[in-house]
Design goal:
Radius of gyration: 20 Å
Bound molecules: zinc ion
Strand order of the largest sheet: 2-5-7-6-11-12-10-9-8
Structural class: alpha+beta
Shape: globular
Number of strands: 13
Length: 330
């Protein structure tokens, strides 16, 4: 990770994105996620009142794939394997115009409960070894529909990013006899300069290794392997910290802040995973304003990630903004 804070002085300041500032209606008759509306293929959404989960009509993963493996000329060079799985969509609210930042903690708690149900139900299926819960927020992150929703991709094989994290967590645990992220939480709480906000069970910070300008790591203060291990008060604490992070994000440039976020947790492969510590990543693309984004190109693609804003400065910026949403201020 290369940190070059002097680079923010240079003349070119990143691209200027067109600002999507159109206020959304509470109900959009053309939205395929709004209650009662028809989806592709003619399925109609129920008239749901809180959260609503369904299997993606255009799922990238399908359960009925026959098992197969092809190793071309048996050289171990071009290997294809089949991958079974499923893709679910979780609507956060019947309201088309809301976001996590604009929902109440109680409403977000219902979303947390739905994620837990989905994680448990999908993970209990024998062929599902990994459950990835994630949200793409905003057009800049390729989110085609403003209706508040997340996706869940569940499949056979542990994907690259969680697998890398799993290996490093396992090595650290074996070497130090303590969980890597438990150790990290303690260190960050002592240092304080990268912490944004916290509650009894969760800590939100800009990680030491942050790649994106306002990247956030949301981490449980106590050792938990997965979202299913959260008890009643921890679920509410997760809802609380999610609202606070997303509100701070929106308040930073006073816009609906774009990001990709997702949970990392123990796989559902039936093995014991003492190395896994439940956490979430937020990867927002914005750098200096509502319209200036950070690109990961050139050196980042070919050599190593590089950032201009130090994680300590990014954390200070996110600490400074209020937890009252800019649209709720009188
Ligand atoms: Zn909608
Ligand atoms: Zn831990
Ligand atoms: Zn992670």
């Amino acid at each position: 990770m290369l940190v070059s804070p002097h680079r923010t002085q240079r003349p070119w300041q990143g691209s200027v994105e067109k600002q999507a500032s159109d206020a959304q209606p509470q109900y959009d008759p053309s939205c395929y996620l709004c209650p009662g509306n028809a989806r592709a293929g003619g399925v109609r959404n129920p008239d749901y009142g809180s959260t609503f989960a369904f299997t993606n009509d255009f799922a990238a993963l399908r359960p009925e794939v026959p098992a197969g493996r092809i190793d071309q000329e048996e050289r171990g060079l071009l290997v294809s394997e089949s991958e079974a799985g499923t893709c679910r969509v979780v609507c956060f609210s019947p309201r088309h115009d809301l976001t996590l930042a604009r929902m109440s903690v109680l409403e977000i708690r219902t979303v947390v409960d739905t994620w837990i149900e989905e994680y448990r139900e999908l993970g209990a299926q024998g062929a599902i070894h990994h459950v990835q819960i994630f949200e793409n927020r905003g057009e800049m992150m390729g989110c085609s529909n403003p209706h508040p929703h997340s996706q869940i991709w569940a499949n056979q094989t542990i994907p690259d990013e969680p697998r890398k994290e799993q290996e490093h967590q396992r090595v650290y645990l074996e070497k130090h006899k303590i969980c890597m992220l438990c150790d990290y939480v303690e260190l960050e709480q002592e240092a304080g300069q990268r912490v944004i906000c916290e509650n009894v069970f969760f800590l939100a910070l800009v990680p030491f290794w942050a790649v994106w300008p306002f990247e956030v790591l949301l981490i449980s203060k106590i050792h938990l392997a997965d979202i299913g291990a959260l008890d009643d008060s921890m679920r509410s604490a997760l809802a609380d910290i999610l609202k606070r992070i997303t509100t701070r994000y929106d308040n930073l440039f006073e816009i609906p802040f774009p990001y990709s976020m997702g949970f990392h947790q123990a796989p559902t492969d039936g093995e014991a995973h003492p190395e896994w510590h439940f956490h979430a990543h937020f990867y927002p693309p914005l750098l200096r304003s509502a319209t200036v984004r950070k690109f990961m190109v050139g050196y980042e693609m070919l050599a190593s990630p590089q950032r201009d804003l130090t994680p300590e400065l990014a954390a200070a910026r996110l600490r400074e903004v209020r937890e009252v949403h800019y649209l709720d201020r009188v």
